[in-house]
């Protein structure tokens, strides 16, 4: 049996100053065994990140403006991966902009090598938590939409065939089983057919 190791996490570091970038690289190396890439020029950041496909993005900004912060946060796709931003100074508006952009960790007071591992851990944990919540919300919305469609199809059957609610649902369920489909698919087809026949 072969011992398969899980692939290394890919971390992209966005920092234009080479010295500061190396400080982050050292901190990341101390935190674990990662595949590290440094992006020193933020021009075309979205394209560069897309080609690297990092698991985590660390952005260091000495003196951020709201526009630069939003652009970097959005380019790094915080809904797709954890993003941590380090800033030397901030204000309420910048903090709010970072959080609204979906940044997983927003660290004020610059970057210290020994803080990188706990910040990485926090960013990954927070991202995972919000990602799970988004998936649960999407599943709930989808289930609600299916429920509404099934209720509408039941109503059509009740009026057209003079059935009670339970009988209409049983007919939908039986049809779905006979056709090897989901009840929502049968309900959708029934609603489409009813609209065509109006």
Beta-strand proportion: 5-15%
> Which consecutive residue ranges, at least 5 long each, have pLDDT under 50?
none
Q: Quickly count the domains.
A: 2
Q: SS-based structural class? A: alpha/beta
Q: How many E strands? A: 5
Portion in helices: 55-70%
Order of helices and strands: EHEHEHEHEHHH
Task: Give me the number of helical elements.
Answer: 7
Major sheet summary line: 5 strands, parallel
Side-by-side strand order of the widest sheet:
2-1-3-4-5
**What is the CATH level 1 assignment of the largest domain?**
Alpha Beta
CATH superfamily of the largest domain: Response regulator
CATH topology of the largest domain: Rossmann fold
What is the typical, i.e. mean, pLDDT? 83
- Please tell me the CATH architecture of the largest domain by its name: 3-Layer(aba) Sandwich
Shape: elongated
Main features:
198 residues; five-stranded parallel beta sheet; 7 helices; 2 domains; alpha/beta; Arc Repressor Mutant, subunit A; Rossmann fold; 5 strands; single chain
